[in-house]
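Researcher: For the annotation table, I need structure tokens for Glutamyl-tRNA reductase. Please keep the output clean. Sequence:
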Amino acid sequence: MRDETGVIVGVCVSHERASVDQLEAAAADSQRHAVESLLAEPGVSEAFALQTCNRTEGYVVAPDHETGIDALELFTRSVTDDVAVEMGHEASLRHLMRVAAGLESIVLGEDQILGQLRDAYEDARGVGGIGQLLEDGVTKAIHVGERARNETGINEGVVSLASAAVRLVDRECALDGGTALVVGAGEMGQLAAKALSERVDRLIVANRTVPHAEHVAETVDVDASAVALDAVEAALAESRVVVSATGSSGQVFDVDAFAEAGETAVVDIAQPRDVPSGAERLPSVTVYDLDALESVTEETRAQRQRAAEAVEALVDEEFDHLLTQYKRKRADRVISAMYESAERVKAAELNTAVAQADFDEDQREVLEAMADSIVSQLLAAPTRSLRDAAEEDDWDTIHTALELFDPDFGPDPPEFVEGMAIEDIPEGMREDIPPAVLEQLADD
């Protein structure tokens, strides 16, 4: 099913197929910049981008699938074909719902993706990327994500990459006291700080904006302090465990800093990565990335499979509702055009009748009421038929109705029509002219 204003086309590069390096290569500088770049592409009328530590996705509304895929090369040109997944209109809508519900996350049912989706929606809307199609699609996905967490147990247990990271380090290194460093004071950094505070004696939070780091430090129930990013190497030297989750466009650490830090376990869940390649080769350093988190999240995944089945059913239900919503809106446009056309004819005939007779105010009101009643009765059956046609995907009927009742719909009239009377147009050429244009020429 598609709307007359275009189709949604999407691409996804995620942890399921892509390595950390490939995820980094696919990502734009920011979600807002990605949307602005997509809107600048030929044929794109709406755009949306979602970039997290384990996925980069882009969606556009375009006249056809091929135009959309060409625009989305912004995300695919730096990765191989086997990494990027292309999605058509309905596949894009269903995928967005699954993402919002946590069905596509490394940690099945994680809560953070829903907040990230909301932020991406606001970013896209802020730069003019959200129109009618994506408004309905993205807000429906957010609604599905909310229902999934309110009505099922999909988010019970380990609910974020940050908590999975702490569980992984605890399993591998037996956390019990000591000092931990969290780099980044965003949502993921806050979650990591909360999880670590239950396992260590002291916590250091580093962030580019120190007040943000101070806020995180104040929310945990453990001895905690805040430092600026330029003091991160000194903090590293004091810490046994590091969880890094900044949104920085460049790497936060130098390899040399790790060489002098002693035994250190590092979980890098930033995208792009905060820890440079090479740090993992140091004998005193163990680095875990997104791939390493797969093992610890498998335990949670098994616990949530039953809830996931309920969420899958919920997605199917809401997906059908969304398609019906799109269909009704398209039928409503035709119905509106039909009533507007009838209203123009009614108004013209009323004016003619009133001009030819001396009606008083009461008589005029009776005449207008009669005309309104006639229009309503005549259009009642076509209205039902058009709504039925939309429900049954009978778009030929919808298209024909638009050509009949909406003069702005369809191709522009050929240039040879301009300035001509209808009797001057050869019969053999009239079939190339939309019916609404022929009617207008006849009226003229």
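Researcher: And a one-line annotation?
Model: The chain has three domains: 7-156, 161-298, 326-410.
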